[in-house]
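Support request, priority: normal
Reporter: lab tech (M.K.)
Component: structure prediction queue

Hi team, I submitted a job for Tetracyclin repressor-like C-terminal domain-containing protein from Mesorhizobium shangrilense yesterday, and the status page still shows it as pending. I've pasted the exact input below so you can check whether something in the sequence is tripping the parser. The sequence length should be 94 residues. Please let me know if I need to resubmit or if it's stuck on your end.
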Amino acid sequence: MVVSAATNCATENDGVLHWLAERRLARNALIVERLTKGVRDGDLRPDTDPEALGDYYTTLLFGLSVQARDGVSKERLHDLVTVAMQALDAKLIQ
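Reply from support: The job had stalled in the queue. We restarted it manually and it finished. Here are the results:
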């Protein structure tokens, strides 16, 4: 739950906010790196934008965390993932 942790902190806790932001950015970088490898290795279509697709999935991942925290049902979260994976399926080389 790095996504929603410490979102409202006093100024003296800015270090925590920065540390959490770094963790979120690092997660995004790993996803983009993997998608870039997929394009390079021919698993994803050459016209795939790894940064945009990575940002999409990072946002989805973080949003899922917030929704789960808020009590959205497991079934709805699974349905959302199913829909989101269609974006990746569209980029796969068949």
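The first helix runs from residue 14 to 40. Residues 11-91 form one domain. Let us know if anything else looks off. Ticket resolved.
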